[in-house]
Amino acid sequence: MTTVTQSPVRASIVRQALLLIAVVLVLFPFLWIAAAAFKTQIVLLTGQIFFTPTLANFAEVLFSSTSDYIRNFTNSFIVATVSTFLVLVISTLAAYSLQRMEWPSWVGQSMLGWSVIFHMVPPITLAGAWYSMFRIVGLDNTYLGLILAHTTLNLPMALWMMNVFVRDVPKELIEAAKIDGAETPGILRHVIIPLVRPGLAAAGILSFIFSWNEFAVVLTLSQRQTATVPVAIGKYAQENTIAFTQMAAASLLSMLPAVILLLVAQRFIVRGLTSGAVK
Length: 279
Known about the structure:
transmembrane helix, transmembrane, Carbohydrate ABC transporter permease, 0% strand, globular, cell membrane, MetI-like_sf
């Protein structure tokens, strides 16, 4: 009896230890960056564990005459917000069309399959072609060019998620709405959208975060006026010197939107990622 009793206890201890190790591995980079943001360059490079916190790095990042961080932060917010809105609109309409319109089965399968293939393509491989095209039509170094690029990158992921949610909407509700005389816009507004709000929230949050963190495409398509936060952080690494502490402060500030979104709607993300996995 003693051996049988101790076995679950040991298994629980091992499981908790492994979870603790995983937590440490995940949080350590964040804690290191957070600590570096409040250190001076000398304290950081000398590896001092105990130090007097300073806000000089944040002041340099936010208020220095040579820093464009506030403009970059605003640019990121504009591009991420507008591109996320477009992604949600297009993906919802496309998912409704694929699931509720009378398309041949191969059309939906081809569309979703192509979305997966496109999503697997590294964004950096598209940046050069987009730069050439946008320069010809006058969209290089513009918000519109960045918004279109980010919308294109995040649309496949959102399409797959919304396709699952729209598929799970009972057909009886749509048929009842049609019997009552509702057209497609009315069905979308009063039936589909209220029922797929968790999917919209999950897809929207992920699209916003992916857009916020995009670096390679923005670096290629933008200049100083339209550069976003990831590009601004990269500028602290120059050829002859790297401002580690200011980079850490800028990185810590850039986490705020994503952290707020995750805290507010984390349950929607879990449901959006697991929907369709268990029936």
